[in-house]
Amino acid sequence: MNRRAAAVFVFAIGFSGAAAAETYTLTIKDHKFDPSELKLPADKAATLVVKNLDGTPEEFESKPLRIEKVVPANSEATFQLRALKPGRYKFFGEFHEDSAKGELVVE
Predict the structure, then answer these.
(1) Which of 20, 52, 84, 105 has a CA that sits 20 to 30 A from residue 42's CA?
(2) CA dihedral sign, ordered 8, 9, 11, 12
(3) pTM for the model
(4) For the ranges 19-28, 38-47, 50-59, 86-95, which has the lowest average pLDDT?
């Protein structure tokens, strides 16, 4: 491979690797997630933003996603999700577990 071809090859690899992951947003309001069911494509990494619009903190937790983090009142947290296999991944708000429930549906 000549130098010019090698440079094009390296650029193409770098460019494809730089593709941004799709961002999905959940909000917490009145101790409920909106949407309560969020669809994501399978086998693609994604960014999940959880916005807490309540005046109290909430702990976003998902055992299958291996996430557990307190989201302070009126703020947000961002999570990088690995490429997921098809399925349903439950999450909940630990501080208001009776009302703050939802699922990621990966298809």
Answers:
(1) 52
(2) positive
(3) 0.80
(4) 19-28
